[in-house]
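Protocol step 4 of 6: record predicted structures for both targets in the notebook before any analysis. Target 1:
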Amino acid sequence: MEKLLIIPTYNEKENVASVIETVFSLQQNFHILIIDDNSPDGTGAIVRGLFSKYNGKLFLEEREGKLGLGTAYILGFRWAISRGYQYIFEMDCDFSHDPHDLDKLYKACKYDGADVAVGSRYVKGGNVKNWPSIRVNLSKGASIYTRLITFMPVKDPTAGFVCYTSNVLEAINLDEISFVGYAFQIEMKFAAWKLGFIIKEVPITFIDRKYGISKMNKGIVKEGIFGVLKLKWMSMFKNYRSRVKNINENSAYQNEKVLVEGK
């Protein structure tokens, strides 16, 4: 029980069974947690129908309504930590992220020293396919804008194809993560960077969805633009380190002190 892939869904009936079956066909010992926001198209029912085929490997959390990407992932992170997973992955359900690239992210964390591995469109070797030029320019502009405001050395800060090691998620105070849209992705990377964790970008090819409807809207864009400014300002007051982590570290320090003084 080492690797958990978290996939938030809302109206993904065309994609959800295929993406689940593709991930399991890779035979890389992933477990999958689907977090569905009460999709009216029956996405959750499709997942439940696969339980018997993937018994003990496929899980579903169903929420009462559309509560946002960020809160879905935070639920998933807590679910993963409580069950002892070491490597926790994020991925979209629409095949814009190629499941075959999951192993690249895993190897970056397992063997190459990364605490956070980001599937990046904007490092050497990365690419975007089937997006209109206006959306590519908007995405690239958002990345440059984020780096200029935050100084965070990540070329694709809005990327949603990520692997976190468990120690990162345990160290971050998830209660302090305030964004729910795609700015959530920026804030999580920012929190990890502020806490001194190593972020490694792995080149991927991002392919626009074939089925279903994009969740991008004006509100998400607005959150991204103004959220980065808010993030920079609030970082002077926020403590992204988990209080639980601090307690554990203090306890470890006290125990070590007792052992040393007892010599």
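Target 2:
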Amino acid sequence: MKTRPPPLRRLVWLALPALLAMASACHSLPDAAAPPATTAELWQQLQAESQRSGCQHDQQCHSLGVGSKACGGPERYLPWSDDQRHDQRLQQLAAAYATARSADDQRQQLMSNCALVPDPGAQCRAGRCVLRPPATGPASSTPAGR
């Protein structure tokens, strides 16, 4: 004949997963309760993160569209290096910044000119990734991002 565990022990075993989940959630409350970053703060974080690492050659440099235009697409681009593989943090900041910019635009009832902002691509110069200069005229046939 099987014996059943005492009711209190059984209750503890049944409640343990829920207690662990609650403890985990409580641990993250200070971050969740923090006020959301302002658009200006997010922009500063984005710039700092994009310049966090250097480069040795152009292949390490990339451009990331940031911001949000009312008609879609980014409002500008930032250069960044994959030297330290921090692109996930950069993508998260860019998404938060785009959301904040969009909310600011709606709150202030701002409109976009809906002009397409072409991706200039990025290159390595003096150990830092920088945006390529804008193409000028028909003589410039190099595709952006190369």
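Step 5 preliminary note on target 2. Residues 8-32, 139-146 have pLDDT under 50 and may be disordered. The beta strands are 61-66, 76-81, 122-125, 128-131.
Proceed to step 6 after PI sign-off.
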